[in-house]
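<backbone_tokenisation>
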Amino acid sequence: MQKRFAGKTAVITGGASGIGLAIARRFVQEGGKIVANDINTEGVAALAAELGPSGIALIGDVTREDDVAHLFSIAIDRFGAVDASFHVAGANKHAYIARMAEADWDFTINLCLKGVMFAMKHAAQAMLKQGYGAMVNIASLNAHVPMHAGAAYSTARSRGL
């Protein structure tokens, strides 16, 4: 396998499962270091054990700016830079829009949009200071092919497609 990420550090939100976990594993397999967060306590513990010295896995909620700021601060303090930032965290509270609770809408919108804004803000601050870096915001096919009982998710994941 190539080591195209040797000497590079990535921050990954939602890194304990799904796409975030796949990105974390591949980045490390190709020689990089990662700092990832997730609200999934068990997933974070498993990722931390898997990473060893190749990275750090933290409990963190991307809808809380302090948690996101801490994630980037740890990456810079431990590894010196943030070369790439992957904004993956996302979820949905399944409900038909006609019966959806406002709190369920807010959960998904805040996670998928506010969480990305906080991650982009702190990635941009680090990358502007360094003079380089790349950000990847994960969208979803569900922006164009709506999921059953997923109006909030389909709305929130439509960015950039």
